[in-house]
Structure formats: C-alpha cells, structure tokens
C-alpha cells in the first residue's frame, strides 16, 4: 500500500503481494497463512529492498516465521490432522 502511495501507481509487485495475502486468507490453518505472508514479504524484501539496517532485521524475522510455519505444518501432518 505504501508503494502505491509513494509512486502514485499500482505496480506488479503490489498486485502480486496483495493477491498472495488475499489467497492466504482463504486457508483455515493459521500457521499456513502466517508462513505464506512472511514468505511473500521475504521475497519482496529480497527483490526490491537493499538489506540494510531495519530491512535486514525484518528479513531475519521473516525467515524465522517461515521456518516455524514450515515446521508446524510438518508436525501437524505427522500427527495426522489439524490441531
């Protein structure tokens, strides 16, 4: 949203990120929603932003959230269902 405000136009990255967030909202599994959103943010940061200061901290946070979501999804699957 800030990209739209800053540039005054809607770019492909903004549309793609909005689509990912909207599609992730369709799943009832919280860990999956969080992991998909963090993954999309991670990809956007790696492609569009230089990893300096605050952006690098958020990059590491996104990696941690994606890893936890992946681990939680695998654990749920091994246990044979949802929580």
Record the SSE blueprint.
Elements: H1 2-7, H2 12-24, H3 30-48, H4 54-78
Helix pairs in contact: 2-3, 3-4
User: How confident is the prediction overall: mean pLDDT?
Assistant: 76
| Order of helical and strand elements | HHHH
Structural class: mainly alpha
Strand content: under 5%
Main beta-sheet strand count, sense and barrel state: none
Number of helical stretches of at least 4 residues: 4
Distance between the termini: 34 Å
Share of helix, binned = over 70%
- Let me know the number of strands: 0
Shape: flat
Low-pLDDT ranges: none
Radius of gyration over all CA atoms, rounded: 15 Å
Structure description:
With 83 residues, the protein is mainly α. It is built from four helices and no strands. The protein is flat and about 50 Å long. It starts with a helix and ends in a 5-residue tail after the last helix.
Question: Gist?
Answer:
This protein has helices at residues 2-7, 12-24, 30-48, 54-78.
Can you tag this structure with a few keywords?
83 residues, mainly alpha
